[in-house]
Batch of 4 targets.
Target 1
Amino acid sequence: MPIDNSSPLTYHGHHKLASSSSCLNTQTAKPPCFLSSPSMAAFIFLLISLLTLTGDVLSEHTTTTTSLYHSPKTIFSNYDNMLHSFKIFLYPPPPSSTDAPLFTTTQESNFYQSLLRSPFVTDDPTHAHLFFLPFPSSTSTRNLARLIRNIRVTFPFWNRTLGADHFYLSSAGVDSSSDRNVVELKKNSVQISCFPASSGLFIPHKDVTLPPVHSFQSIPSVNATPSFLGYMKLTDHQIPVTLTTLIEEITDHPDFTVEYDPPASKKAKFCLFVYGGSDMTWMVEAMASRCVPVVITDRPIQDLPLMDVIDWSKMAVFVGPGGGAKGLKRVLEGIGEGEYEEMMESGVAATRHLGWNAEAQPHDAFHMVIYQLWLRRHTIRYARWVEQ
């Protein structure tokens, strides 16, 4: 995700079709006979007006619902193909001596339970596009190597692609190892971790992240007169040293409000987040509250949820810390009202794809994560093992 240190995002307005008309030269040609009737001419004029109005409405609807996607022309047809075709084979989970749940985080549990109840699961591995490896995130590297070794020996599917058509859940991510089995898992298989991913344990373009679980139940009404420009909720998360000065400046600036664990209602145009140093999990809640996220980061972000599907630059602002609080204010005030409204509405629309449900619903977080796996079903990677 590109970082803008000093200038606002560029807004590209949507162009509506402009109707045009041409007049017949009545001095050189006579109008068709059916136009000679006043009632018929009035009818045709009314029909053209209705068609023009309908076209504008459809164009506006299409703009509103597709502007947040990377590939608006293909996503829904691909999604429908996924619903009818995608099959996943689940390996049996490793034996456990306790009754503890297989996954401990809410995101992992939601995804796993939804997967078990979904029509994507097949008992016939020959029909599967991908293979799921269920194991707890707390599994040690040694036990993980043993697990993959058993899969390799017991089933024929791992060795066909060295695990490239396999995926697994790991909230924090699998660490590096010198063991062949863990190397192939880490380098080839798709890792699904919780957002934000741990630094160094996420491979862009291969791995995906689970959207955070939000607490909002409904979308609040629009606040027509925000009380301040930017709002930041700080928690006990460690602030990166490179950003501490900026946080202090924001805290002292009259146009920004910084609070610890405040009430859910936020009366600001923008909600500020420090990537890697604040609670990013409530970003979806901020978007649903019509507060445009502003992510302050000193490095590119490559683990945003659903990055293959939605264009985060259409609903969030990404800035570097170099300009300080004054530079941040200049960027935010440089965003026009039209662009701001577009970003706000895109953010609200995106929460449909970022929200979890007790029973999975069409286009929700579960289905969109599955869609990202569907996009990876033909991607083959090999991490050949070389003896040391």
Target 2
Amino acid sequence: MGWFAACSSLVLVGLVALVVQILYFSPIQDPILLENSPLSSPIASPIPINNKLQTVIKLGEGLVKDPEDVSVDKDGVLYACSRDGWILRLHRNGSWEHWKNLHSSTMLGTTITTQGDLIVCDADKGLLKIKEDGVTVLVSQVKGSKLSFADDVIEASDGSLYFSVASTKFDFHNWYLDLLEARPHGQLLKYNPITNQTSILMDNLGFANGVALSKDEHYLVICESWKYSCLRHWLKGEKKGKTETFLENLPGAPDNINLAPDGTFWLALLQGSPEGLGFVHSSKILKHVVASFPSLIEVMKGGLYKKAMVANVGGDGQIIRMFDDNEGKVMNVLTSAVEFEDHLYLASLNGNFIGKLPLPKLAAPTN
């Protein structure tokens, strides 16, 4: 009996120590529950599964590593940032060029300026401008604090750059902790190239991700990934300065969003949680447990690799059509989609190629 009591006491002490470790030394603080979120109760796609993304043409297979975004300039030159630090260019003649090496594994969203320069959001270095003759750091601090986790960027016709900060608390390598904590640490910022000043347009966003300007530049669309929604922020007109819901209850977590030539938008969607494990987001204890053990975080990230989705969204916030790889067979972790000359160019944080999808061969939009 003494042996049993000693073992029981040892187990009890171990459990208490584990609880103390989880609750008091957890990397997240007072997480918000998401019982009614698509994270805990996935929403079905409004359009039937079609696996169209399994038919993509693979560009540069083996040359690029996990490109988060893709941009195409007015001459049709494609730019992609690779995890190995290289920015690659695909020229019209089909040749690839290792253009610049930034020695960075944290390059995310990109855009091409009217001057033909490439703007890169580097989650560690800040907002960068890359030209033929070198690299310029445009923004590395905001209001005296280091700019961290710059995520996506778009240029307005006046040269202003609007860009998102996914989280002011967690860095790129710990992004899943932001989702688990579910507190709004994201921002939407504006860089003025004339004054070199950066201002905060929106604060307290839920993992601010993709940013896009409407065709008439009357409003911005900003994606909140773990909220499975997108906001519309008015820049002009009677609603100037106001913010409203643009999309909500999406069938996936919105990543990058890009304006299409016809004025609609292409929105990349991610699978936020593995099937059957969404209940984690409905329990504070479970959130702390997962956050405290990196191996469990990797299990939760597993849902990202199960499928890929991209939606074409109208200016009224309605989904027009969707393409997917419901099995994650060819594409998964799809993070960006850009339309150029009737083709969709696709980037993935878990791929070694850029996907190219000929749009004219696909079915007409669903009304």
Target 3
Amino acid sequence: MTSFTPLSRTLRLRQADRPSPSPRKRRLAWILLLAATALPIRALAADIEGPKVSVIAATAQVLEQSVLVVGTIVARETTLVNTDLSGARIVSIAAEEGDLVSRGQVLATLDTSRIDVELQQNDAQAASAAAQLGQASSALDNAMISQEEAEADLIRAQKLVPKGLMSQEALEQRQKALARAEVSVRASRQAVQSAEAAIKTVAAARKDIELRLSYTRIVAPSAGRIIHRSAKVGATASSSSEQLFIIANDDQFELEAEIPQAQFDVVPVGAVAHVRLDDNREGLTSAVRFVAPALADRTRLGRARIALPPGLTAPIGALASARIQIGSSKGIFLPASAIVGTGEEPSIKILRDNRIERKPVLLGWRQAGFIQIRSGVNEGDLVVAKAGGFLEAGEQAVPIVVQADASLSQGN
């Protein structure tokens, strides 16, 4: 919806800056004005036969254009808080809806009894793997000593055989002994590698257990205000169930407003918006932060977000309204009752030479019961206030000049 300030009010403000005439001159001016306006109208009313009709003198006025929107209070951005640990019971709740929380703050804790048992089992497995590694290392050391002895025996045999001091058969036995020692060394090294791998496996399992243990402390991933809590003591947590907490990031809220399709294109990002909550509080001034690029499929309504100041204690989902300023323009504005048919061929009825005439018009902005006339009416035309009456074109009528509702300038 839109609002405007009548040009007549602007003229009166400008005239207020001029020197004030004397009381005598003011009385003379009023007498001349009555002589020029009221007396001829009374004479017409006395001399012309026909029904009386209320008319409005078309005058140019300044339109302060604005769009009135309604919507609900929403969080600007939200963080969903859940747990990746399924099957554990919630044992304590440390935060409630409405609380301000910092990043990393504990919101709830889960039962750790099963994970504690797994930690104990892992400790035992780590000790066993360490013992196996020690045994394998000792076996490797023995195998390497045996290999060194076999190599020394073989070298001595190779020196004695050419001198006839040792038989060829003895040499072959020493060669086979060295081969067996080498095989034993390789097997011992593999046993050591297997024991080391077992230790790494146990360590990785411990990291997994510790990670799941950390999941038992449900913490806030971002700072903000808790706007929803479904977590309950005794309930079983699950990563696939409803979010345990919802946080409004940085305690920032906005008015998510719906905009009619006819006014959607004229609302820019950054436009000044005067927001009023439906709790009798004073309004606040903000700006349009975001305008959705598309209309809703079913309602054909646009969507805009108006930022609200930090710390605003308005409940999520509360109704609010805002008047978005989109500029001003000058033109002739008539009450909607003066328009005949606001569809494809709208028209007005004017009184010219005390006879009714019908004139087609081009309509513009509509607000608070008034419609902008872009073309089809001239300043000074006497427009029938209620065009839907019984008078038709060509009929004679007596004009009764009435005032248009100047409260439109206040956006009422």
Target 4
Amino acid sequence: MARAALLHLLRHRSVAPTTAPLSAYKCLSRNSKTPSGIKWTSFCRAFSSKAAVNDIIGIDMANTDSGVAVMEGKERLDPFSLVADELSLIANRLRSMVVADVSNLASAAEYFFKIGAEGKRFRPTVLLLMATALNVHIPELPPAGVGDTLPTDLRTSQQRIAEITEMIHVASLLHDDVLDDADKRRGIGSLNAVMGNKLAVLAGDFLLSRACVSLASLKNTEVVTLIATVVENLVTGETMQLTTASKQRFSMDYYMQKTYNKTASLLSNSCKSIAILAGHTAEVAMLAFEYGKNLGLAFQLIDDVLDFTGTSASLGKGSLSDIRHGIITAPILFAMEEFPELHAVLDQGFKNPANVDIALGFLGKSSGIQRTKELAMKHANLAAQVIESLPESDDADVIRSRQALIDLTQRVITRNK
């Protein structure tokens, strides 16, 4: 009921953008070489109408008027299809890597790696595209089932980063679900709901240990340090989320730092690791880092919007879960700037369900959702600009992968699940 009332308010309110529309993504210049079959009209065009964007990309840009770049051609570039074969290879390897001798631990560890429960595999996709975007070519893939017999070459090492990243990500989900007492994840029962909190925590620890073993096999101390920092940041971010001090809970700077630690650190440091393994300069490695950081921040900001506007069916988990757990996110923080009286409601907490309704009422009257989307677009634009700053290349695979990375920045901010 509370969510329905919020959506009704959002649909029927008219709010002018709080900031000027963000500039459109920079796109390939007229002289740039584009992948075969891709056609650009004046390299890109900006749309101020959400309906125009919907017509092109088929994704609802509800309440979004900021400019985005849209690629035209015979078919829209699908970033996931470009690395589909490698994703399948990595999925098979992950399933073999999380095998345990104890049966119930094995069942728990493989819970989100089973076919049909793997999720979007967003992070491995980003990392594989980044590897190609940095001039690393995809070798011919081996026959199915012999992934572990690949020689230790560069591409295989970068695939390992994708595997490590996914294991750390899933481990963090298992631990988060215990802390949040969640009962659903990826459209199925959460592991803690199915097997209990203790086994869920141990399964997360087990995945982290397997990730460490794989990380050590790379024998690159700089990469080991980066990924170890990710784990530290995850713990720091989760601890920051537990804070009860109003000054911190109601601070946008604190929220953004927490969001970096919990979400963007994994993607940024993994992207940087991809560049380091390829032997790139510190400057290029930092560009990879900045792409991952800004994409990760944009991703989480939209997640925070969807927690209010999405459905449990589309999200694969409960909606309104953050606010019900007293977690203050960007939409509410922006709403508080317009309605300071919301502070008192948040200080009281949400044990009383009526306070959830009151908070959602203020959010619906505010521009909190819109401003959060605009902030996500800002970070998406920054990520896209980073890709255009990479060293020039005439290689068609490199150009295609870089465009796919730019396309992902758009998909992140226009998704509805």
